[in-house]
Amino acid sequence: MDQLRALTLFSKVAAMGSFQRVAVAEGITAQAVGKSVRQLEEHLGVRLLHRTTRRCTLTQEGQALLDTTRAPLDDLGRALQQVHATSQQVAGALRISAAPSARGLLAEPVARFCERHPRVQVDLLAHNAFADTVDQRVDVGFRSGHEPCGDLVARRLFTVRQQLCAAPAYLARHGTPATLGDLRRHRCTVFRDAQTGRPWPWQLGSAGEAFEPDAAACTNDPETEVALVRAGLGIGLLDGICAADDLRAGRLVVVLPDLHPEDLGFYLYYPSRRRLPQRTRAFIDFVVAHFSGHSAGR
């Protein structure tokens, strides 16, 4: 027996005085209403209603039950109405997860979205590890790399290219590699995947040839790797998001432009398409529109 449902129907019968009136109001049969009340009486071991062919009235036990449950049922009804009303509004807390290196990309759309919807409060979690949307109660996540897997909905917002980059000062000291063989004589920086703990593979060339660099340094933070390359430590395989500003400013240059891995993506992901709050759905649509036609490193 659904006790909450049975109590709700009982309270409505007490108020309307008829199984038939409650049935019409609830869109069910009078028999279903009567069965629910009978099950409640059997469960409690008392009669709750005096029944006639025309009307139902409360017994002493029924009145006592109604007096005890009326306020909690009213409170529950108001709470459910409030949650439903909130779910239909673009308002409330929106928890977003993204790598620190993506903050420059996300600052603009997040700011514009909050201007448009001032009743939304954004909680932005910045970390390189992939966020568990359930354990960390994340509404929307962003990740650069391969498509997120698992029980998630993922949308590729734009393409991200990885390119071999170096500081002009480093190339002035050590020369610019012209072939893959030349690259083997250079020191390099390596990115370590935050999830697996393994170095990110360098699959270079049209055939995706595996290349093992001479690692002068290894880090699990892409911004740190960019900083090391910019400082002249060596050549790094950098993504177009993190390296974009330095490439535009000339602090980094691309070497061996024809040797680069398969393009990655910048992804938006969320737990499910079903029953998304309006604030989450509105934010997803806003971000997809914002990044339409965008690319990084191409």
Automatic annotation (TrEMBL):
Family annotation (CDD domains): PBP2_CrgA_like (cd08422)
Classification via PROSITE patterns: HTH_LYSR
Alphabetized InterPro entries for the sequence: LysR-type_TF_proteobact-type, LysR_HTH_N, LysR_subst-bd, WH-like_DNA-bd_sf, WH_DNA-bd_sf
Keywords: DNA-binding, Transcription, Transcription regulation
Pfam families from the UniProt entry: HTH_1 (PF00126), LysR_substrate (PF03466)
Domain of life where this protein originates: Bacteria
Entry GO MF terms: DNA binding; DNA-binding transcription factor activity
Coiled coil, from the record: none
Protein family per UniProt: Belongs to the LysR transcriptional regulatory family.
PANTHER family per record: HTH-TYPE TRANSCRIPTIONAL ACTIVATOR TTDR-RELATED, HTH-TYPE TRANSCRIPTIONAL REGULATOR
Protein's recorded name: Uncharacterized protein
Species this chain originates from: Piscinibacter gummiphilus
Lineage of the organism: Bacteria, Pseudomonadati, Pseudomonadota, Betaproteobacteria, Burkholderiales
